[in-house]
Write a structure and sequence with these properties.
The chain has a single domain, classed as Aldolase class I (TIM Barrel), CATH 3.20.20. An eight-stranded mixed beta sheet has the order 6-5-4-3-2-1-7-8. The protein is built from eleven helices and eight strands.
């Protein structure tokens, strides 16, 4: 039994799937950035990308099962040649669509069309902006990223995001600590971004850094691994368990593999039923009630106020 499972057991809790709400699709690892905290280990040099036959099978599944939300991520998901196909297929099926956008992709010449395209299809944008201070963002995401992010946010505002269309910003702590209060931080972001840059957004999502991939390397290199895990375990909050994203989300890999969440995907913890399962092997009804695979990293999702792809949980 892993340490997270011990925590569940000590509180007489179990973790099983509820009704499916979100199909999260990771279309590949290629990105125009290589952020220090990235749990996907995405970068410009990564070559993993979803083939056409897999995108088509996922599109067929969306048309048949019509999940309420289709959440498209990467890497930079827009770099996939099938990004627009997945967006338009999901919207035609009546699904809400989320684009996990890194903002700087909008500032590249090849993707200057993105704001208008996303707005025309009423796609919700959830964008990475780990701080409203430039030096902190550049320290975590690379030199010059903050200025490009601000420019991209202004372009999103110009087509209605943050006003008529939903625009979420993602905060990640700088270093081995938990996020502060999401509500208080959201108020700070709103004041600072409005006063400094005239930028509006809909909501802030505070997400705890996961001790996997690039951030795990950072922790070990700086001798912070044990201390960070102790912080997560000591901060376990049983009130967060019912709201964990793995209860209502399935994460799909770039070859169609099924995972309980995006973090399990990065650790290759594929859902199995005697054999590894792919999206076309399952239905929303079949998944309901299944036990969720857990590991040490799950402590990050239940620490403090909790953490998921939708932000804090309590």
């Amino acid at each position: 039994m892993n340490r997270f499972a011990d925590k569940l057991s000590s509180h007489r809790l179990s973790l099983r799937r509820a009704r499916l709400q979100t199909l999260q699709i990771n279309v590949g690892r290629k990105c125009n950035q290589a952020c220090h905290h990235c749990h996907v280990d995405a970068a410009p040099w990564r070559t993993e990308t979803m083939p056409a036959k897999i995108a088509n099978r996922i599109g067929q599944w969306i048309r048949e099962h019509r999940p309420p939300v289709v959440d498209i991520t990467g890497g930079a998901p827009e770099l996939s040649e099938h990004f627009r196909f997945l967006v338009e297929t999901a919207r035609d099926a009546g699904c809400q669509v989320i684009d996990r956008n890194n903002l700087t992709i909008i500032e590249t010449e090849a993707f200057a069309w993105l704001p208008e395209y996303l707005a025309s299809h009423e796609v919700e944008v959830i964008a990475s902006l780990p701080c409203y201070l430039g030096e902190n963002v550049d320290a975590q995401r690379g030199s010059g990223v903050f200025a490009k992010s601000i420019s991209a946010l202004k372009k999103l505002n110009a087509v209605g995001y943050g006003r008529k269309l939903p625009l979420g910003l993602v905060y990640n702590p700088l270093g081995a600590k938990l996020p502060p209060s999401q509500a208080e931080l959201q108020a700070e972001y709103r004041t600072e971004l409005r006063q400094r840059y005239g930028i509006e957004f809909t909501r802030l999502l505070a997400i705890t850094n996961q001790p996997i991939a690039r951030f795990a390397e950072y922790l070990r290199q700086h001798g912070r691994w044990d201390a960070y895990l102790e912080l997560l375990a000591h901060s376990f909050n049983p009130a967060t368990v019912d709201g964990l994203m793995c209860r209502t989300t399935i994460s799909i890999g770039w070859m169609g593999e099924v995972f309980d969440c995006d973090f399990n995907q990065m650790l290759k913890m594929q859902v199995r039923n005697g054999k590894p399962l792919y999206l076309w092997d399952v239905t929303p009804a079949r998944l309901e009630g299944w036990e969720i695979q857990t590991g040490l990293h799950c402590l990050a999702c239940t620490a403090g106020c909790g953490s998921s792809c939708t932000g804090a949980l309590s």
